[in-house]
Amino acid sequence: MKKIIFSGITLITIFLVSCSNEEKTSENEIQITDSLSTQPEEEDKIYSLPSAEHVAVMFKRSNLKYISGITTKIENKETGGELENTLRLGIYSADLFYNLLNNQWAESEKYFLVCKNYADKIGFNEVFTEETLNRLKTNIQNTDSIIKILSTIQYNLDNKVQYENKNHLIPVAFAGAWIESMYIAVQVSKKENANPQVNNMITENIAIGNTLLKLLNKELKTDSKINDIIEIIDGLMKEFNAMQSVQQNIENEEGEISLTKDELDKLFQAIESSHQKLLTL
Amino acid sequence: MKTIKFIFYFLLIWTLFSFQSSNLCDPKKLKDDCKPYMESYNYDLSKLARFTYKTKPQVKENELELYYGEKYRFVFNVSDAPIPIVISLYNKDKDHKNRKLLFTTKGEPSDKKFFTFEYTHARRVFIDYEIPADSSNNGGLVQTGCVMLVLGYK
Fold first, then answer.
1. Less packed terminus of chain B by CB within 10 Å, N or C?
2. pLDDT in tens, A107-139
């Protein structure tokens, strides 16, 4: 009898210890305390996209200049649910990265706070913290340090998404950030009278849209509202994929796609139109 | 006495279950364990591939978009794959006959838990996870596992 009671107490103790034994995290990492909402699914075919932060870094490396006032106007919209707020988080995160990578603190702070607002709305409260804001402010003149901090934000976002099994949000946030980054690049290219490096980076980025579409279509079963985003991206990709230079390049996947002036103009219009449509969702 | 026995067995099952569910394929732990292998690379993305061992071998494929000319490091963590799997990287998907093998863990020691690979010149790679058949008879218990990929860039 005593043995059973003793064993019972031991088991309770082990169980309680196992529950409270959360891994200690460094001060830059979020603590995940929520439980898994649904059982994760197994996938036979997996698609992976670059992070929104990497897209911004690639544009910066293509000598994308800073022009004030071309990013999306800040609005704290109260309409829509998780999907719309994730899309807005993606759009504004691209604006945040553009400002940060160009050492613009005042604008960065505004975009950080709007990103925090939308991240909080979808339950990702721990990602855009005051501590991260302070670190960005301290390092605003050091682009390498900024990239490291952005990597940490991305790492924490991915942790949260994976732990809560909200993988369907990844392509939605990416769609917002991807279109916004390309929209910014188009505005800069138009004002600079065609910077070939920026134009090449726009072309390189637009090709990612084909994989983004596959991923969005895969996640359609999770949330039918994704269809609105699919229609916008699909229209953009149809325009791009039909271009003669793209058709010629299909067989040579590793070669660079070089668009004609006319094709580039059409692509710029298509990006601007898609951007406008995304903002209305 | 019966009530105490019931509570004892209930707690035993509950405790075992809680240990199992909290430790297998925890994405954060698997990613954190990859950090030392990232060295000076910036975090780009991570992808957890979950699988169930079956009576026949299977292949799961991860199609990955890259920037041409960018320096990448792939870090794979197979700590939570109870039966060793083979990871191979190709330039084309598994439906292409003449695809080029870029990297494979085939022939590596079966107790190795981390693999790294660096690559630069590609716009897209296809990662095949070759999951062997589970020939062991675990009293009908189905074995599951996963592999974590963390991608870094410079």
1. N
2. 999 999 999 999 999 998 888 999 999 999 999
| Distance between CA atoms of residues A164 and B144, nearest Å | 19
**What is the distance in angstroms between the Cα of B11 and the nearest Cα belonging to chain A?**
7
Please count the residues of chain A: 281
- Give the one of B45, B48, B149 whose C-beta lies nearest to A50's C-beta: B45
**The two three-digit tokens of residue A167, written as one number:** 């993988």
Whether the pTM exceeds 0.90: the reply is no
Which uninterrupted H or E stretch holds B153? strand B144-153
| Closest residue in A to B147 (Cα–Cα) | A42
Tell whether the model's pLDDT for residue A2 goes beyond 80.
Answer: no
Of the candidates B126, B125, B120, B123, which has an alpha carbon nearest to the alpha carbon of residue B70?
A: B120
The reply to whether residue A254 touches residue B64, judged by beta carbons under 8 angstroms, is no
